[in-house]
């Protein structure tokens, strides 16, 4: 009888121990800093902000060159071979392009570095000068990465522009930065031709695709990517490497409100974020395979693709429309990017993860019967285990559920995912738990902005809580400052609340040719540290993790002087609608 009692008590005690250990672990701790008074937290493992994780390395150009020398014979960049491209017409007359893609074809680290050097020399031979700027305007692909690293070796600032940007914003971005050379794909070249008369400084265009309309306009010199490499290979030039404080990238935002602003990022800014993320992803190293498909014009992807080579990993390129076997652009019966590559690490945005979740749920619901009942049972048991309310779905039972049910789900993303990084927007609790359970992988949910090189906070691998965005990255201090108009104060109980302010080496220089806006949201304190005022409102939990709770722009002042949060109002309306 005693044995039965002890056996029953073991899972209860274990669960209580798990809960208590979560409570006592400090992920972020208070720190004394300069600048505006507030409540400031730093990463508990690092007493001061991390600037670089590699001795003697202070720029992205140095980091890449070191990686290529260390792993010269290992594959680095992979692109799938195009086998067939066709147009399918549905019964209602709509046309959809479908592709059949083959295996990945690889460039080694050594060959990639050689190509980077050739392309850099070719740029100079074409007439591009160091003080001029290059714009990369294309979807994510290996040529994008090669062009970026080539510019870094010349200390040429790269202007990054979303391939989906509209004509007005595109003109604004190119003219404001006085770009002379644009590197793009054939699809983007057509967009450029449409606005050629409105571009003031562009003199040369380099097309990543071999086939393009060379007579598209007489205003520019148009060359192919391959031709520029050949010219550079025939006339090699020495590198002109940058310093840490030199501007690596002017990154234009998507321009959701008005025209986009160009954020100036130094090599030191991006390197600080890359160094910090490396300390967060568990065991990141040469065995990791990264699936690259998010826009390289976004800091999340740009930082990731600079980090993977630094640890000796592999980058395979894909697209959101060819990601899985059932993606819109994949020809039926052929394989998506994830199936072929079998990545171990991926970055994602909530929209992509929501799509994966919805796709799996639809499949399960369509099967129905015993398969659906088994899935629902397995999911509920694993959910109870993660939430700490049921011990039985750990250990052997977890192994059985993984083998019987979730193994098939994991095959959607290749079956080997061990870590997912999510950023760009808040991730719903439902999707976070779904990914944890069905893919068997932790999600590192981060918070950051273009203005902070994505560096602000990041959830650690053992933090299974939902609704939070983790503790400060090792490169950042995160401060809350009072915002009385919105009713948020650092003296609030049970948690300090206020506007989120980020400081540290990842905080960028400001907005290009926009000193007024820069002065409004960037401040330098008496100790020389730069701080960025995000406009977001957050609160710190007892363990030093941040939760985003509001946005200053969502607050409006009514005619009698009271302040109302539109975000909270909309949330209450949604809850009322659902309840009805």
UniProtKB/TrEMBL annotation:
<comment type="pathway">
    <text>Lipid metabolism; fatty acid metabolism.</text>
</comment>
<dbReference type="InterPro" id="IPR000873">
    <property type="entry name" value="AMP-dep_synth/lig_dom"/>
</dbReference>
<protein>
    <recommendedName>
        <fullName>AMP-dependent synthetase/ligase domain-containing protein</fullName>
    </recommendedName>
</protein>
<feature type="domain" description="AMP-dependent synthetase/ligase">
    <location>
        <begin position="97"/>
        <end position="512"/>
    </location>
</feature>
<dbReference type="InterPro" id="IPR042099">
    <property type="entry name" value="ANL_N_sf"/>
</dbReference>
<dbReference type="Pfam" id="PF00501">
    <property type="entry name" value="AMP-binding"/>
</dbReference>
<dbReference type="GO" id="GO:0005783">
    <property type="term" value="C:endoplasmic reticulum"/>
</dbReference>
<comment type="similarity">
    <text>Belongs to the ATP-dependent AMP-binding enzyme family.</text>
</comment>
<feature type="signal peptide">
    <location>
        <begin position="1"/>
        <end position="15"/>
    </location>
</feature>
<keyword id="KW-0067">ATP-binding</keyword>
<keyword id="KW-0547">Nucleotide-binding</keyword>
<keyword id="KW-0732">Signal</keyword>
<dbReference type="GO" id="GO:0016020">
    <property type="term" value="C:membrane"/>
</dbReference>
<dbReference type="GO" id="GO:0004467">
    <property type="term" value="F:long-chain fatty acid-CoA ligase activity"/>
</dbReference>
<dbReference type="InterPro" id="IPR020845">
    <property type="entry name" value="AMP-binding_CS"/>
</dbReference>
<dbReference type="GO" id="GO:0005524">
    <property type="term" value="F:ATP binding"/>
</dbReference>
<keyword id="KW-0436">Ligase</keyword>
């Amino acid at each position: 009888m005693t044995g039965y009692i002890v056996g029953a008590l073991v899972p209860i005690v274990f669960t209580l121990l798990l809960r208590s250990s979560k409570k006592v672990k400090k992920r972020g701790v208070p720190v004394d800093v300069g600048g505006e008074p507030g409540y400031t937290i730093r990463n508990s493992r690092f007493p001061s902000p991390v600037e670089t994780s590699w001795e003697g390395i202070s720029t992205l150009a140095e980091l890449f060159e070191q990686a290529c020398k260390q792993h010269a014979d290992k594959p680095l960049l992979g692109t799938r071979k195009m086998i067939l491209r066709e147009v399918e017409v549905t019964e209602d007359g709509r046309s959809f392009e479908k592709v059949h893609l083959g295996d990945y074809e690889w460039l080694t680290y050594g060959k990639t570095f050689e190509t980077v050097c050739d392309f850099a020399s070719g740029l100079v031979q074409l007439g591009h000068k160091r003080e001029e700027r290059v714009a990369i305007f294309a979807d994510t692909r290996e040529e994008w990465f090669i062009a970026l690293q080539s510019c870094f070796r010349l200390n040429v600032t790269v202007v990054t522009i979303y391939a989906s940007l509209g004509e007005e914003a595109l003109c604004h971005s190119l003219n404001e930065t006085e770009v002379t050379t644009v590197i793009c794909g054939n699809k983007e070249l057509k967009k450029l031709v449409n606005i050629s008369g409105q571009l003031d400084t562009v003199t040369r265009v380099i097309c990543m695709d071999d086939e393009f309309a060379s007579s598209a306009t007489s205003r520019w010199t148009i060359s192919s990517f391959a031709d520029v490499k050949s010219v550079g290979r025939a006339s090699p030039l020495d590198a002109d490497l940058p310093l840490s404080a030199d501007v690596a990238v002017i990154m234009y935002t998507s321009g959701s409100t008005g025209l986009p602003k160009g954020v100036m990022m130094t090599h030191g800014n991006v390197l600080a974020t890359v160094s910090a993320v490396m300390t967060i992803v568990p065991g990141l190293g040469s065995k990791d395979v990264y699936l690259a498909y998010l826009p390289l014009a976004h800091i999340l992807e740009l930082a990731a693709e600079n980090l993977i080579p630094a640890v000796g990993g592999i980058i395979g390129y894909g697209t959101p429309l060819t990601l899985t076997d059932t993606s819109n652009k994949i020809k039926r019966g052929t394989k998506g990017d994830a199936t072929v590559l079998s990545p171990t690490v991926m970055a994602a945005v909530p929209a992509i993860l929501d799509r994966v979740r919805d796709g799996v749920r639809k499949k399960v619901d369509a099967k129905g019967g015993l398969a659906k009942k088994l899935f629902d049972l397995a999911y509920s048991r694993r959910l109870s285990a993660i939430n700490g309310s049921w011990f039985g779905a750990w250990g052997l039972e977890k192994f059985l559920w993984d083998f019987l049910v979730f193994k098939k789900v994991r095959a959607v993303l290749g079956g080997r995912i061990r870590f997912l990084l999510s950023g760009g927007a808040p991730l719903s609790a439902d999707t976070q738990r779904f990914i944890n359970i069905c893919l068997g992988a932790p999600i590192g949910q981060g918070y950051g902005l273009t203005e902070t090189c994505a560096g602000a906070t990041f959830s650690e691998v053992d933090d299974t809580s939902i609704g939070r965005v983790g503790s400060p990255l090792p490169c950042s201090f995160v401060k809350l400052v009072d915002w009385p108009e919105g009713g948020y104060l650092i003296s609030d109980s049970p948690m300090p609340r206020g506007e989120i302010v980020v400081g540290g080496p990842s905080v960028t220089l400001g907005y290009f040719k926009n000193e007024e806006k820069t002065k409004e949201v960037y401040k330098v304190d008496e100790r020389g540290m730069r701080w960025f005022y995000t406009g977001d409102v957050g609160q710190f939990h007892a363990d030093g993790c941040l939760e985003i709770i509001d946005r200053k722009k969502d607050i409006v002042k009514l005619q009698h002087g009271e302040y109302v949060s539109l975000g909270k109002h909309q949330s209450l309306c949604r809850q009322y609608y659902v309840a009805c």
